[in-house]
Automatic annotation (TrEMBL):
Keywords: DNA-binding, Transcription, Transcription regulation. Residues 226-324 form the HTH araC/xylS-type domain. One of its GO terms (molecular function) is sequence-specific DNA binding. This is Helix-turn-helix domain-containing protein. It holds the Pfam family HTH_18. SUPFAM superfamilies: Class I glutamine amidotransferase-like, Homeodomain-like. InterPro entries: Class_I_gatase-like (IPR029062), DJ-1/PfpI (IPR002818), Homeodomain-like_sf (IPR009057), HTH_AraC (IPR018060), HTH_AraC-typ_CS (IPR018062), INH-QAR (IPR052158).
């Protein structure tokens, strides 16, 4: 038994540019490496080649990949991930492989959860799986995706979009955010957080990719905000206001608000709520504490207030969430968010 079959599309005997290996390696690392100390049943992993060759592929920095599965491996998988497509498919110089398009449609029809990382969204769009849906890809290519596939509601401001059975991410490291989100959905926040710590990355980055568009964050802002954000995570059970956080950061409220919003893409109160929900999820998974106590320790207050926020932002009650992720023999508590040397810089979006 496993947590599900994850099938990742990889070009077979194809000149893969070295820079595309990053997106390909993300799901291989997250889902392809067993983690028996984190979960009794990890994922079953398939790397599926397209069976294509490119006689004109002569990029000296390129790679050729052979896989144990072909496209037939997509059907029967619980999750199908397309990390990227060749640049020529984005530019319209040649279509996405018809065999891949048909395999994606068949996998979706069979009930697979469909996922794209970066410009892999062009493959899902070519298969018609993004029609009428909100989706994203790397901000450099969102205008191109919208132009070539006008039925897709393209959002260039987010790191990823969770539309239930179809999920898309922005480029590069946003693919890791989405893969950790999938682990969080499947196995719970505690395991996703522990995996993130193992990978030395934040478990949950508030914000969106809009912050990265032609306006990099000044590094001095990271140094000024990181200590106060870490302090907030350590004191979530206390009543906290924007004034409290600004005072701790030795800034005016206006300056703190502006700098946090620039760094995370969200307001201080929205950022604080995300931290508290994360803490509550971990407590529900890893302890037998009453719901009232979980609300107190996470700073969400009464059981009714905790229930309100869970229903609004997670879609289930705290009790249903605890039943979905029953306590295991894992440690009683782990931090809800991984401490980082810079403020958390990004955030998932789910409708």
């Amino acid at each position: 038994m496993s947590a599900g079959i994850v099938a990742v599309v990889a070009p077979e005997e194809f000149g893969v540019p070295s820079w595309d290996l990053y997106e390909l390696s993300i799901p291989c690392t997250v889902f392809g490496k067993p983690q028996p100390d984190l979960a009794d049943h990890w994922y079953e992993f398939r790397l599926c080649g397209t069976g294509e060759t490119d006689p004109e592929a002569n990029d000296p920095a390129g790679f050729r990949i052979r896989t144990a599965y072909g496209l037939e491996g997509l059907v029967g998988a619980d999750t199908v991930i397309v990390p990227s497509v060749p640049d020529a498919c984005m530019d319209g110089e040649r279509p996405v492989s018809p065999a891949l398009v048909e395999a994606l449609r068949a996998a979706h029809a069979a009930g697979a959860r469909m996922v794209s990382l970066c410009n892999g969204a062009f493959a899902l769009a070519a298969a018609g799986l993004l029609d009428g849906r909100r989706a994203t890809c790397h901000w450099l290519h969102t205008a191109q995706l919208a132009r070539r596939h006008p039925k897709v509601r393209v959002d260039d401001s987010v790191l990823y979009v969770d539309d239930g059975d179809v999920l898309t991410s922005a480029g590069l490291s946003a693919g890791l955010d989405l893969c950790l989100h999938l682990v969080r959905r499947d196995l719970g926040a505690r395991i996703a957080n522990q995996l993130a710590r193992r990978m030395v990355v934040p478990a949950h980055r508030p914000g969106g990719q809009a912050q990265f568009i032609d306006l990099p964050l000044p590094p001095e802002d990271d140094e000024g905000l990181a200590p106060v954000l870490d302090w907030v995570r350590e004191n979530l059970g206390r009543p906290l206001t924007v004034a409290d956080m600004a005072h701790r950061a030795a800034m005016s409220r206006r300056t703190f608000y502006r700098r946090l919003q620039a760094a995370t893409g969200t307001t201080p109160l929205q950022w604080l709520l995300a931290q508290r929900l994360g803490r509550a999820r971990v407590l529900l998974e890893s302890t037998d504490l009453p719901v009232e106590r979980v609300g107190e320790l996470s700073g969400l207050g009464t059981a009714n207030n905790l229930r309100h926020h869970f229903l609004r932002h997670i879609g289930v009650t705290p009790g249903d969430y605890r039943r979905a992720f029953p306590r295991t023999s894992a440690p009683a508590f782990v931090p809800a968010f991984v401490p980082a040397s810079v403020p958390a810089l990004a955030a998932p979006t789910a409708p």
